[in-house]
Amino acid sequence: MGKIAVALQEALKRRRERGEAGRAVGRSIAAGQGWSVGDVTCTSGPQDRSFEERHTRPTIAIVLAGSFQYRSPLGSGFMAPGSLLLGNAGHCYECGHRHGEGDRCVAFYFQLDYFERLAADAGARGANLRFPVPRLPAVRPLAPLVARTGAGAIGAPGVPWEEVGVRLAVGAVRLAAGLSWDDGALPLNAEARVTRSVRAIDDRLDGDLSLGTLARESGLSPYHFLRTFERLTGVTPHQYVLRARLRAAATRLATEAGRVIDVALDSGFGDISNFNRAFRTEFGVSPRAYRQRYAACAASYGSAPPSAR
């Protein structure tokens, strides 16, 4: 049993021990301009009455563990791990657990104008900017996003939530409309736009390099910028920014005597543990070992190495 399923079973066990009714408990994972992500664990079961609720904004929820029945004006469906719950702003809905206890989902919430722009990027027009179906099954194109979301839900660092949300929204709109996952076309002047973005990133590694900011500066929507950047560079904007910051940090470790924690914070990392983990993944050694290795190499050639701290 995976960590997500184990955590759900533990929540159900606590509910039984306390003699409580089942309920849904959510926690915020991430948020940005026009979007947010929440981790929702529900401990309801056949003994609990289901209540009608209302989607206040466009919603896509990835089921990670458990199962339930979902009903909305678009129809009803069985929700199982890997499937997507689709909700339109203003639609009432009901979730029930007639045949088993509990579920855990990661829900992506979008402001209406933000979602409608993503839906338009997906090829939707007019009334089709809203979901036409209540759910999507666990199909292969969704698997990487489901896996990435599950890892983030149990605390894996470095999940690019904005990129995941953008891909998820556009992909869900296309699949719900019976289209392919990606139409394959790139916007005009794609190479020139990405070139400007790459240079902007390298010029201000300590600045705001979020997907939304980079997309706005390139004159593209977040979705078109994300797919164009990845198609031309081979990595996503998040991956490019991360690696550029790590390269700059490695240069500082090799040439300056400052503390590793200062290098980490100056490189855009919120804490030293994430920096150490990302640095080791990229370079195969810890920041301190990298500095010591460089110092030993420099000493063998008669250069004065920085103080390793």
Explain this structure:
With 309 residues, the chain is of the alpha+beta class. The protein has 3 domains: 3-156, Jelly Rolls; 190-234; 256-300, Arc Repressor Mutant, subunit A (Orthogonal Bundle), CATH 1.10.10. 45% of the residues lie in helices and 18% in strands. The chain has 11 helices and 10 strands. Strands 1-2-9-4-7-10 form a 6-stranded antiparallel beta sheet. Strand 5 and strand 6 form a beta hairpin. Helix 2 crosses helix 4. The longest helix is centred in the last third of the chain and has 19 residues, at 237-255. It is flat, with a radius of gyration of 23 Å. The model has no long low-confidence stretch (mean pLDDT 90).
Task: Considering the chains and any ligands shown, give keywords for the structure.
309 residues, alpha+beta, flat, six-stranded antiparallel sheet, 45% helix, Jelly Rolls, 3 domains
Largest sheet: 6 strands, antiparallel
Distance between the amino and carboxyl termini: 42 Å
What fold name stands as the CATH topology of the largest domain? Jelly Rolls
Nearest-integer average pLDDT? 90
Q: Rg, please?
A: 23 Å
The total count of strands amounts to 10
Q: List segments where confidence is low: pLDDT < 50 over at least 5 consecutive residues.
A: none
CATH class of the largest domain: Mainly Beta
Neighbour order of strands in the largest sheet: 1-2-9-4-7-10
> How many DSSP helices?
11
Q: What characteristic shape results from the CA principal axes?
A: flat
